[in-house]
Amino acid sequence: MKNIKIYILVVLVFTLSCDDKLNIEPRQVLDSDLVWVNEENLEAVLFGAYAGMKGTFGNNEGGEMYGGDYMVFSEMLAATDEVVWGGSFTAYREVFDKEITVTNTAISLNWIRAYDVINSVNNVLAHLDLAETDEKRDWIEGQALAIRGIMYFELLRFWAQPYGTGSEVSDPGVPLVLTPTITVEDADALMEQGRSTVAAGYQQVLDDLLEAKGLIDVSYGKNGTSISTYTVSAVLSRVYLQRGEFALAAQEADRVIQSGEYTLGDDPIKAFNNVSNGPEDVFTIQQTALSNSGTSNGGLATFYARLFGSGRGDVQVQATHFTNYETGDLRSGLQDDLSDEATAGTVTEMYYIGVGGQNSGQIQCAKYQDSERNIQIVRLPEMYLTRAEANFEAGTNVGATPLADINAIRNRAGLTDLTTVTIDEIRLERMRELAFEGHKLHDIKRWQMSVGSLPYDANELVLPIPQREIEIYDIPQNAGY
């Protein structure tokens, strides 16, 4: 936040409409008067923000965000007896134990990276006059606003009390930085405003996402590699669910489903570990040998996989987890016959007994087997589950009945139709389908359930503001730290 240069991180992680104009050295430090000169550089900074959302790319900077940490933080904070952290990384052990220190490196790096990304898009928004056409200006502005809204949504979900406590107008949220930070003085002035409230933070998220939704033309980004108008609707459905605005959540999820751009795959396991986007991918992190999130000791394959040449097997699934499933559910298959040389291509079930190195012999989730396979951030099944839950809570049938949506997900998993459905069955189906994809903590909080003996609003389930930020900017710390 205190750099007086603008950092451009240009990595071929996302497949945008790019060509040689984006062939810039992977990391550059440029004076601001050299950056803001044309549309190509404007797009390059936006592209760098995309790379920042993912996280590191084959080095040890940390702060994986959508490359892994956002999912791991959620699952480990929500962990009880269904999963164990068996790894040696202290930062993640603290999250699993719900005994987090204010100097936790992984948490600090994710906070810093989120604000780096926000600063990048704030700079983009301040230089939209460089866009050469109105159409391109709208696309760039929509992308930048969507990224900022998504970043603030994640910051609020992890570093503040959840929306729905009844005290949103007074609960501290996160600092809302909406203008570029170029100099030390800029950073000091912006951070001196302190933390917004949770209510104000969520309103900013909605303002950004709703504007972005209208700016991004439906013809852009439908392949799931960049933010499309349907990606924005998907994230809006998450925001509205958290706020308890069920009718609006159902409408946004229905918009994604009804777009016709995505279809449910024929087998749950086939949705994962792909090198290109599948039919149900609404938004996906594109992985390559350069950009992967496994070689940096901070990605999903690092933590979840335990195969020959892949992963550490840190996240170990326990037998208790399988009590959630019905007999014959394709999402609960356990493969126990892998050889010590088994690689990602040989795993055919959703769970397997790990082989090939440390932590072998433990149950691993097969959703993340290889650091060079894509990571799904939004999948179409989530939209069916969101529409079902939101319609049930609102007493509506937008797009379909809750029963029809739940049966669509069940059928794909090899299960028979239900004849009636309850809210508990809808929630259980969500937990089955989205297991280990980073939803668990947030679902528990909005359902106001407990994590073991901890209530949904326990201080231990909120990440601490990094000590660095407290010392530099005198930001108030979260309760309990």
TrEMBL record:
Residue ranges of every copy of the RagB/SusD domain listed in the record: 325-450
Location within or outside the cell: Cell outer membrane
Location, primary (coarse class): membrane
Domain SusD-like N-terminal: residue ranges: 97-241
Domain of life assignment: Bacteria
Gene3D superfamilies in UniProt: 1.25.40.390
Keywords: Cell outer membrane, Membrane, Signal
PROSITE patterns assigned to the protein according to its UniProt record, in alphabetical order: PROKAR_LIPOPROTEIN (PS51257)
InterPro entries, A to Z: SusD-like_N (IPR033985), SusD_RagB_dom (IPR012944), TPR-like_helical_dom_sf (IPR011990)
Record-stated family: Belongs to the SusD family.
Protein name: RagB/SusD family nutrient uptake outer membrane protein
Organism: Reichenbachiella ulvae
